[in-house]
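User: Predict the complex with zinc ion.
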Amino acid sequence: MLDLNRGLGSLVFALISVLIYAQQEPFFRSPEGLSLVSTDLHIHTVFSDGAVWPNIRVDEALREGLDLISITDHLEYQPHQADIPHPNRNRSYDIARDHAKDSELTVIKGAEITRSMPPGHINAVFIRDVNKLLFPDDAKAAILEANKQDGFVFWNHPNWEAQRPDGIARLEPLHKELIKKKLLHGIEVVNFTTFSEEAMTIALENDLTIVGTSDVHGLTTWDFRISEGGHRPITFVLSKNKSVEAVKKALFAGKTMVWFKDIIIGREEHLSKIIKANLTASSISYNKDEIIAKVKLKNHAATPFHLSYKGLYTFHEDSSVFIIPPHGEKTILVKTLERKTSLELPFELLNGITGAKKHLTFSLLTQ
Ligand SMILES: [Zn+2]
Ligand SMILES: [Zn+2]
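Assistant: Here is the predicted structure with zinc ion placed in the model:
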């Protein structure tokens, strides 16, 4: 009887979990005609200097609603080697992929090429065989091999204080050479808890894909306070669909947005599409005998929108700067001076970063 009760209990629990999972709103609505694929392309396990088995990385990603991850253990830095010797450097990927087999999560193969500056640490993802990237004395050879395997190659934490004591990301001649030869395709503007405006400038000036990753070594729930509503840095790929080929193609084409703490970071054209899909305005209405327009703004995303109004009107209950909470809404009262049937409201998104000290500007149309 006890066992039966327990069985029923866990069945009910499972059903509730499924219902909650099914009702979970996406982090962001996808722009029309596109899939917004959530990724973390920089993750460690015990197979380099991480603290957890690859299974846990898969479970974390599933719990956190990610679509695609890459386990990128250090090729050369192997502090657990005495306890976990593994001549096969594809092993952490194999375990994670098997664990994710019957789930919605895609695991792709990756590695971190680990060097002093220059070039510093470089991630290679979408590769075929990690073992072939082992060139302990020649970073360039590993990068060449990653390219030979059609990998997507990006520069990790160019602002890392262990390699850049001033925290400033800057290009060395070797990076310029790699960019010129199209051997380097992306750069982390966000790594773990840091954001680099200098890396953002490097990305925009050199046509590199903007990437943000967790670079997690411990548990994501502790590092990013998941239980308190936090989230790891996520790179969203604006992809044609969710297939690995389409995601890879979009990454090479630089079609990304990074979600870091409360801010979104990306090229203007991509953030414009995201805001269009995730911030909407109702039609306007007036109370009898008044010419103060009522407009309801709705945020469909999991991040707040910090808005600064740039137009000529003034508001009846707010200043020109206000916040719409995640998945929330806000009604603004616009003093339009004459009765209108629709409004075009120009805004700056203060937490939408399109460049160093630059924020997204856009116009919101009422329905
Ligand atoms: Zn690193
Ligand atoms: Zn790393």
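Residues 112, 121, 156-157 surround zinc ion (ligand 1) (CB under 6 Å).
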